[in-house]
Amino acid sequence: MEKLDLSIKGGLSIKDAILIDKIAPRAQEEYNQFIGQVVRMNKLGSLHLLLTACSRNPFHSVILPFLCRVLLLEEKLKKGDKITLIIAENPLMSTIIFSILDKFNQKIPIKIKQKYPHTLLTFLGLIKFLKSSYWIVISWLWPRLTKVYKKRPKAPIVFVDNFIFPNSFNKEGGFVERYYTGYGRYLSSEQRQTVWYSPTLFGFKTLGQCIKVSIQSKKSRHNFLFQESWLTLYDYIYALYLTAVLPFKVNNSPLFMGYDIQQLLIFEAKKDIFSPSLAMAICKFRFIKNLRKAGVEICQVVDWHENQDIDKALNLGFHKYYPDVTVKGYQGHVSPSYETHKVPQEYEIDNETLPNQLHVISENYKKTVLDSCPGLDVRVASAFRFTYLYDVKRKKLVTGMPTILIALPMDIDESISILNTCSQLHLLADTKIRILVKHHPAHESHTFIKQVPAFGNDTFTPTSDSMLDLLGSISLLISSASSACAEAASLGIPVAVYGSRYGVTMSPIANDINGFLNNVFYSENQLIEFIQLYLGMSGDNSSIERDFYMDNGESTQALFSCE
Q1: Which of the residues 65, 176, 333, 431 has the least number of beta carbons within 10 Å of its own beta carbon?
Q2: What is the DSSP letter of 518?
Q3: In Å, how far are 67, 97, 100, 269 from 258, measured between CA atoms?
Q4: Residue 377: how many CB atoms within 10 A of its CB?
Q5: 20: which residues sit within 8 A by CB, 6+ positions away?
Q6: Secondary structure, 3-state, 338-406
Q7: pLDDT at 196 over 50
């Protein structure tokens, strides 16, 4: 007898957490096909693919996370599990749950967390309108106050898409390249001058932050092409207008594995009304139109490609206004398989939201993409962010004091769960260990001190050392949804991946890697057992070449040189 929480962030038992991880691959496959059918059924245009409801991004849209829980309920009913109470997010989801119960002739009470979703939708729409308006004012003001708009290219350029954060410039005023690390060493000085970064500002909350980074960029030796300096007030207002229009095109839905989720899909689409992220994506499209109108010559485009709305908008803009220019998407990161949106689909080619070429960092991932989207031109390029792995030298561990590294993911709640699960590791019988904690750059150590008691005592030792130094000396890695998992596994270091109790486990390690290099734990006892078995064990590190490709600069030349 059990209570089953099917709300989006509801906690799961260990048994259900394991089951939902087994279900997830089938749910993802069905979901990809479902969204393709939605696009065709509603005759959606290219701009409609920017909508969250069509994004296939499980972090932005609740549809896939909920569908995984739908299939979880179905599997449990098939097995005859006795459920006393089901918790649903809102009435729209409870209706779908009732249809499952009817199918299995079950009568189980359902408790609804949010009883008035449409009231919440209206409230969220108002909040989003205010946020979008604030963003428009700041975005329009800062380039005009700093006159950054006066810096314009005078010759054909390589347009390079990336992100800038408030801390993207170091104390010396140099730009910290987080995305294409070290690419410049393969280019001549003349070639480097043709590269113009066109960054998306991320994490900026005030006008002062924008002004500061603008001043820093003008002092940098790099060239920057800020979209904000090319957008007019009309562009911003028009983008906001489209956020209120585009969602209403989503009206119909096919069945998902026999279940009617049409109302949930329509509701999800309407959540984009006045959405700041959707407005920003539309502005990206308008920005490229304005570049063309101004006569800016572009010989090549490099898109940091995660297949999100801004990527789709960028690709669509160049296909429309620079049809003769090759857009090269670069996926220079490691992604958990659950990040469904990062694997392109054929209908996205038809709607011109994908790049002409997609450059990935391993042959394995190339195969994954081609299996899903055989019509796309996919190539292998150097893994710029991971070339340091080739320099890592495994050190001999200090006898009697092996070291465990906990590399925390970006999600703060999951980070806290991991730390709490690991809080008693120092009590392992007959084992003296050192436990290092490296938090995500988005957070500070003090974030965890109040919420995780063990963080403030001698159990954990916070570290700011580089992964180059850490991976050369640790005995075992604990993490989740972090590229550190794949990096450690490629070096032969045992990896314990935290099994999520709130949804699908986010492991970035390839499915064909198993054993002590890829172990998922759902409880403290499972983790302790794994540590006792494999602490200090070392495997073959030959998979670096397989997982993180690096060449002599040929692929870099292909990416960053004008054709």
Answers
A1: 176
A2: S
A3: 12, 12, 10, 21
A4: 15
A5: 12, 68, 69, 72, 503, 504
A6: CCHHHCCCHHHHHCCCCCCEEEECCHHHHHHHHHHCCCCEEEECCCHHHHHHHHCCCCCCCCCCCEEEE
A7: yes
Return the residue matching tokens 């408790």: 111
Specify the fold of 390-546.
Rossmann fold (3.40.50)
Sheet with strand 461-462: strands edge to edge: 461-462, 434-438, 403-407, 476-479, 495-498, 519-521
- Give yes or no for residue 426 having a pLDDT over 80: no
- When pLDDT is cut at 50, 70 and 90, the band that residue 400 belongs to is low
Q: How far apart are CA 497 and CA 489, in angstroms?
A: 11
Tokens representing residue 522 in the block: 């759902």
Helices 117-146 and 207-219: angle between axes, nearest 10 degrees: 40
CATH number of 133-244+271-386+553-560: 3.40.50
Taking the CA atoms of the chain, what radius of gyration do you get in angstroms? 24
Decide: 494 and 477 in contact? Cβ < 8 Å: yes
Provide the pLDDT for residue 477.
92
DSSP per residue over 458-503, as a string?
TS-EE----HHHHTTT-SEEEESSSHHHHHHHHTT--EEEEPPSSS
Greater confidence (355 vs 475) lies with 355
Please give the C-alpha separations between residue 122 and each of 48, 210, 297, in angstroms, as whole numbers: 21, 30, 44
Q: What is the mean pLDDT of residues 40-61?
A: 94
Tens digit of pLDDT for each residue in 506-556? 888 877 676 777 888 998 888 888 888 888 777 666 678 888 998 888 889
Tally Cβ neighbours within 10 Å of residue 114. 14
DSSP state of 169: B
Residue with tokens 């890695």: 477
Q: Where in the chain is the domain with CATH 3.40.50.2000?
A: 390-546
Query: For 333, left (φ over 0), alpha (ψ -120 to 50), or beta?
Result: beta
CB 286 within 8 A of CB 235: yes
Alpha helices (runs of H) in 246-275, residue ranges in sequence order: 262-270
Q: Cβ(307)–Cβ(345) under 8 Å?
A: no
**pLDDT above 50 for 331:** yes
pLDDT of 328: 97
Q: What is the pLDDT of residue 473?
A: 84
Computed from CA positions of residues 434, 435, 441, 447, in that sequence, does the dihedral angle turn out positive or negative?
negative
